[in-house]
Design brief:
By secondary structure, the protein is α+β, with helices and mostly antiparallel strands. Among the domains are: 199 residues, Heat Shock Protein 90 (2-Layer Sandwich); 161 residues, Ribosomal Protein S5, domain 2, CATH 3.30.230. The protein is built from 21 helices and 24 strands. Strands 7-6-5-8-2-1-9-10 form an eight-stranded mixed β-sheet. Strands 11, 12, 13, 14, 15 and 16 form a six-stranded mixed β-sheet that branches. A five-stranded mixed β-sheet has the order 18-17-19-20-24, with helices on both faces. Helix 5 packs across helix 6.
Amino acid sequence: MSEDIKKNTYVADDIELLQGLEAVRKRPGMYIGSTNSYGLHHLVWEIVDNAIDEAMAGYGNKIYVTIHKDGSITITDEGRGIPTGVQSQTHKPAIELVFGELHAGGKFNEGAYKSAAGLHGVGASVTNALSTWLDVLVYRDGKIFHIRYKDGGKIDIPLEVIGTTNKHGTTVSFKPDDKIFATTEFKWDTIYNHLQEEAFLLRKVHFYLKDERSSLSQEFYYEDGLKEYIATVNQNKKPLTDIIHFQGVVQDIEIEIAMQYCLGDYNETMFSYANNVRTRDGGTHETGFKSGITRVVNDFVEKNNITKAKKLEGSDIREGLTTVMSLKVPEKIIEFEGQTKSKLGTPQATSSVFNFIYEKFTYYLTENKEVAMNIISKCIDAYNTRIAARKAKEEARSSKKVKQEIILSDKLTPAQSKDYLKNELFIVEGDSAGGNAKKGRDRIHQAILPLRGKPLNTDSITVEKLLQNEEFATIINTIGAGFGQSFDINEIKYGKIIIMTDADTDGAHIQTLLLTFFYNYMRTLITSGHVYVAAPPLYRIYKEDKQRKVNERYAWNDQDLEKAKKEIGPGYHISRYKGLGEMSDIQLKKTTMDPRSRLLIQVRIDDPLFVEKQVGILMGKDASNRRKWVEENVDFNKVDTFINEVK
């Protein structure tokens, strides 16, 4: 039998049995979504969720998170403490099952928890599996218990009693495995925002965050919960209504909703939770809410004979609406889709939320007629804008007049292909770089749009002023899918929108202004993964040989630079690029535009609350908030003085 035939056989010994936590280390993405920063922080959320479940059950009202200098992290709660007694089925200490076995936990029945965040029984064990070491202290029954794991879940120190105590609770410390993760650096902002979210959802529970790397610390505590959540998200917006708040129980599901309409906001913003877990991808509860609020408003319009309003669509009604919805779902009926629990699948949640919001919001509109008419008026404006945009689009197509009544830049160099999803639009800083990009582009699939100066801040201008701006009018027309509520992701003419700016403060500012525009008026473009930032190199390392042949490398960071120096060898020269215009068209194509060799950064919204707050702070009108953020987050002592080094 040939070697090739042997390789293609499939026999019993080809079946691999992964013991214990090996499956998690083999396929970590199945359990935590990814091995980048998102997955890294998911390890923290799994342990924090366990602490939250104790607080939700009424045990303890303090949760502590401490980031250590060595890259480890500690989570402490004041709950009952993880059971340490011997479990009758396995004859092992229960804590060993929690941290050492998949699908082992106290949340599969309602004996320990009525509703809980962690329901698969794999959270703590996954964190253990993907850590270099994990250490647990349990305070219960008057004793201090200790157990330690190493190398992805192997017991290092068996369960032991190390002292006595009158405290109760659990302390878990762990250090992520750098062989698994692309980065093992915990981000202060990410953990800060997550704990703040949890504090909004768990009224009167204290969360304490400390970072020993920087001496930063923060306490979160809220009396009014979701109402304060809405106030934080909308702090830089102009409210149309006060914060509307509803709370109740339908079919054993506890429902709490806070909502507020704002003027000048053309998006809907929703934060939904089930048992304190953010359901980023929505689910049955969001379906029930959207259907319910649409029915309420249309029934109100019909009942009050408001003839100006036609049949309003859900998007008309939710334009400018910020909503936070939190459900507590009993264990016996809750269903999440996937281990990361990003989408609620409980069928009962649809009807429960629908009936809840229909009853509560109908009563609210009836009792607050003036507010109701303000809301209806905004919905009608949204409807009229949507219809007008549709008609304008149809007229433009039928008459083939693209430049109706708006001023467009004549500098767009379009792509030739009509296979739109393969096309790329480069929005380039400056005419010089735009000219080189035009020369170096792939004419079939790459379009170039140079910018003249800095775009306007769309967080502080009207729609009328936006459309009068040549740059933004051209971008809207070029992408071809409308803007605001009328934006239709199915009609985009480019699969990738790539922002290409200089690697300096002005370039970063332009990126921020463009991303703010996309976030405010084409948010689906971002959430669908179509927006990118080009990553031009910072350095060119080169050397000529005796035949004047150039050997060169490019470096995107200091690590790349050191590697390139070694590869080039003695006698190298280094150029620090100050801007895209310093590159030739060949260099720009090779390093920044050619799909075979370039680096692109995809823009995503992993944390909508963080984005809402940052856009408000950085682009809002309150200069004092912006100054405070800059002082706390920017180190002006770090100055790059490395230019044109010659060795």
